[in-house]
Amino acid sequence: MVDDFNSIRFLGQRRGQCCNVDYSRKVWSFNKFFKEIELVDILLVGRKFIWYKQNGTVKSRIDRVLISTNWILKWLDCKKYALGRLVSDYCALIMKVTSIDWGFKTV
After folding, report:
1. How far is CA 14 from CA 63, 74, 81, 95, in A?
2. What is the pLDDT of residues 15-53, one digit of tens each?
3. Cβ proximity of 7 and 26 under 8 Å
4. Separation CA 5–CA 24 (nearest Å)
5. Which residues neighbour 94 within 8 Å (Cβ) at sequence distance 6 or greater?
6. Assigned CATH topology for domain 2-97
7. Are 60 and 49 in contact (CB under 8 A)?
8. Cα–Cα distance measured from residue 107 to residue 73, given in angstroms and rounded to the nearest whole number
């Protein structure tokens, strides 16, 4: 599942926007959702944020790639990379496996 959830999982995943008590409750609720659906968010490599307000004052990590534990076992080295922003206020995401077992190699 790949989606823009428009929510963060930890307070450090958003900068430039006020945090209040209700905001912390939303973060807690979002983390509870992750636990209930038993999916894992793939690690983001290379950038801390992937969405930026046009003037750069607010930035967040709100796009997620959620995978099952079975998927993790098959693709152990899979990571999520964010490219630079060209046209959109979002960075494009790329999934990449750093090592692939192609099977037996003949010499």
Report:
1. 12, 31, 18, 22
2. 886 655 566 778 888 888 888 888 888 888 888 888 888
3. yes
4. 16
5. 80, 81, 82, 83
6. Deoxyribonuclease I; Chain A (3.60.10)
7. yes
8. 29
